[in-house]
Amino acid sequence: MQQHLTRGVGRLEEAEFNARRDAEQWPQTLAELREAVVKVQSIHDETWTQESYNVELARALAVIDKHAWNGTRRG
C-alpha cells in the first residue's frame, strides 16, 4: 500500500512540474500566435492582379515562412 501511495505522489509531482512548465510557456506561445495572425492579416490577396499574382504570392509565402522559421528556432 505504501508503495502505491509513494508512486502516486511521485506521479502527481511529475504532473505538477509538467503543468507549471507548460503554463510558463503559454504566454510566449500566445504572443507568437498573435504575431502570426497579424502577419497573415497583412496579406491582402484580394488586391492582387493576375500580372502580380506570382510575385505577391512569393512575398506572402516569404513572410509566413520567415515567421514559421523564427518560431521553430525559438521552440
Report on this model:
The chain is rod-shaped and about 75 Å long. By secondary structure, it is mainly alpha-helical. The mean pLDDT is 88. 83% of the residues lie in helices and 0% in strands. It has helices at 2-41, 53-74.
Task: Kindly summarize this structure in a few lines.
This protein has 75 residues and is mainly alpha-helical.
Q: H/E element string?
A: HH
Question: Approximately how much helix is present in the residues?
Answer: over 70%
Instruction: Tell me, briefly, the overall form.
Output: rod-shaped
How many β-strand stretches?
Answer: 0
Count of helical regions: 2
Oligomer type: single chain
> How much beta, percentage-wise?
under 5%
Q: Biggest sheet, in brief?
A: none
Radius of gyration: 22 Å
Please, what is the average pLDDT? Answer: 88
Distance between the termini: 41 Å
Features:
rod-shaped; 2 helices; 83% helix; mainly alpha; 0% strand; 75 residues
Layout of secondary structure:
Elements: H1 2-41, H2 53-74
